[in-house]
Design brief:
globular; 17 strands; 257 residues; five-stranded parallel β-sheet
Length: 257
């Protein structure tokens, strides 16, 4: 069985690869992809694998956007940090998911389920599955943070997500900037933070910035089809959305509530 792993956290990807080798030595991992853009390029230039393991949140956006750009017809097992109850709707033979950190017994269960596809004529309708998953994840807003507790000297300061204008990457951590232009350092990566924010209200504009929908003042078309995003608060540099994510960003902005 030939599989691919889509995961933007290097050690998580390598851990899953090792667990696959231990659980099913006959499996061949063709590649590890870290972004939506890498996935688009790979699927455009390679035959479909027998199976794909995909994280939901990648460095350049949600993996769901992949399915609007290329054909993905192979079965998919999602690896996710979402709570189990948020994904109960997907306990069907056409899809499975693994909660991080992935356990060997759960991986074996998922692989056994996928093997059912080798014994019948069913096809995977990934587009329909994506629509259902996005709907379910959108409804499960209780999975997302409503506040962050920020260490400050000998205190923990509560900061409501409603007060966040943007978050930028800085010195192996992040700086949260409020709508009142106050800054708080967080000892967390943007990869970790974006998973804890409701994607209806926050967008990973690039590797350096997460922006809040309500903090966006305007957008400008830049050279090469890129977008620059201006906020109601000052930023130390221009926030640029790549040409490849231009359409996704505008759709997110128009669809956010």
């Amino acid at each position: 069985m030939k599989v691919i792993i889509v995961e933007d956290e290097y050690f998580t990807a390598r851990s899953l690869q090792s667990l696959l080798t231990e659980t099913a030595p006959e499996i061949e991992v063709l590649t590890i992809l870290q972004s939506v853009e890498e996935c688009v390029d790979w699927f455009d230039n390679n035959p479909q694998p027998d199976l794909a393991f995909m994280d939901i949140h990648l460095a350049d956006g949600q993996v769901f956007s992949l399915f609007d750009r290329v054909e993905v017809s192979c079965p998919i097992i999602f690896t996710t940090a979402y709570e189990e109850y948020a994904l109960k709707a997907f306990e069907v033979n056409s899809i499975d998911y693994l909660l991080k950190p992935v356990k060997k017994k759960d991986l074996q269960r998922a692989l056994d389920k996928i093997k059912l596809f080798a014994t019948d004529d069913r096809k995977v309708d990934n587009q329909a599955i994506m629509a259902k998953m996005m709907e379910a994840l959108g409804e499960s807003s209780s999975n997302y943070k409503s506040h962050f507790l920020i260490p400050y000297r000998d205190k923990l300061l509560p900061v409501s997500v409603d007060r966040i204008a943007y978050i930028r990457s800085e010195n192996k951590g992040a700086v949260l900037v409020t709508t009142g232009n106050k800054e708080y350092f967080m000892d967390l990566s943007l990869d970790r933070i974006v998973r804890e924010l409701n994607p209806k209200h926050f967008y990973r504009a690039n590797r350096q910035y997460i922006v809040a929908h309500d903090a966006i003042e305007s957008m400008s078309v830049w050279f090469g089809g890129k977008l620059t995003v201006s906020l109601y608060v000052d930023t130390p540099e221009q926030i640029i959305v790549s040409r490849a994510r231009n359409k996704e960003f505008k759709e997110w902005y128009q669809g956010a509530v």
